[in-house]
Design goal:
The chain contains 8 helices and 10 strands. By secondary structure, the protein is an alpha+beta fold. A 4-stranded antiparallel beta sheet has the order 1-4-3-2. A 3-stranded antiparallel beta sheet has the order 5-10-9, covered by helices on one side. Strands 6-7-8 form a 3-stranded antiparallel beta sheet, with no helix packed on it.
Length: about 300
């Protein structure tokens, strides 16, 4: 009996080991499909989180879409006058390409705007369509914002005008507005000119006579331009007074303007200096001074 007990005691550890091994083997067999390595489980969890985050974010544009949006943002060639743009939209280092000279052709958008207005419909006029050029450009307004402007001038001075206004743009010279005079048309060129000046609009070509005369103006052939006319009026002598040529009820103490006021053109003003560089004649030097007026010397 003692021998049997001793034998049994020796078998107990062996049996215990066997039971443990059996339990482990059973666990492995039963849980093989559900058991994952810790690193595999962590990787899959992270992957699931990334996928979930991606689904919650808006789709980003493709490279092609981004490129297209960027080009569209910088293309201002079709924007109408008065449209405000930002330096970021036009890439300041390449702004000269936005100072464009274009031919005007029958049936195009510009032609439809001017025909029968600033460009005469009657035969025998002293100007032909082929002699004119449309300029689409940029300028700073009185608020210091960059806006689109437009002019029509004679082709002989078109490049000079483009370069002058590009130089003024780089100097941030302020111009109140710059629309074609046709935007102010009601009855005729002189009426449109008066309304354009009253709106402080800078303009050039308009087939009309010199105010209060029957003589064609240099504007009629696109050889003259008026800049910031409200600040730079055309002053004439009337009796003992100097008055505004369009509004004689407006009197001036003398024919000299106060050059300390903003936007007044004088012989040290950037506009005067730039036009003088290209040998334009300034109306501010006339006996009846037309301070807004610059004309091309042919």
């Amino acid at each position: 009996m003692k021998l049997k007990n001793k034998t049994l005691l020796k078998l107990i550890p062996v049996l215990a080991v066997g039971v443990i091994l059996l339990a482990v083997l059973t666990s492995v067999i039963m849980g093989r499909d559900d058991t994952k390595k810790p690193e595999e489980s962590a990787a899959e969890t992270a992957s699931s989180s990334i996928e979930a985050s991606a689904e919650s974010l808006p789709e980003e544009p493709s490279v092609a879409e981004e490129s297209s949006a960027e080009v569209a943002l910088r293309d201002i060639s079709t924007l109408p006058a008065g449209t405000e743009v930002t330096p970021e939209e036009i890439k300041q280092k390449k702004t000269k390409k936005w100072f464009e000279i274009r031919k005007i052709k029958k049936g195009d958008e510009v032609y439809e705007r001017i025909y029968g207005k600033s460009f005469p419909a009657e035969k025998g006029a002293k100007i032909k369509l082929k002699d004119l050029r449309y300029i689409h450009l940029l300028h700073y307004n009185f608020d210091g914002k960059i806006v689109v402007g437009e002019l029509i001038v004679n082709k002989e001075m078109a490049k000079d005008i483009r370069d002058i206004f590009y130089a003024l743009y780089k100097k941030k010279y302020q111009i109140y507005s710059m629309y074609l005079i046709d935007d102010f048309w009601k009855t005729d060129g002189n009426q449109a000119d008066t309304d354009s000046c009253d709106a402080d609009n800078t303009s050039a070509f308009c087939y009309r006579t010199i105010a209060h005369t029957s003589t064609l103006s240099n504007h009629a052939e696109g050889y003259a331009i008026d800049i910031n006319p409200k600040e730079n009026p055309y002053i004439i002598k009337s009796g003992d007074h100097w008055v505004d040529s369009d509004h004689p009820e407006i009197r001036y103490p003398s024919k000299e303007l106060d050059i300390t006021q903003p936007h007044v053109i004088h012989d040290e003003d950037d506009a005067y200096l730039e036009f003088a560089e290209y040998d334009f004649r300034w109306g501010g030097n006339w006996d009846d001074p037309d301070y807004q007026h610059f004309e091309y010397i042919r």
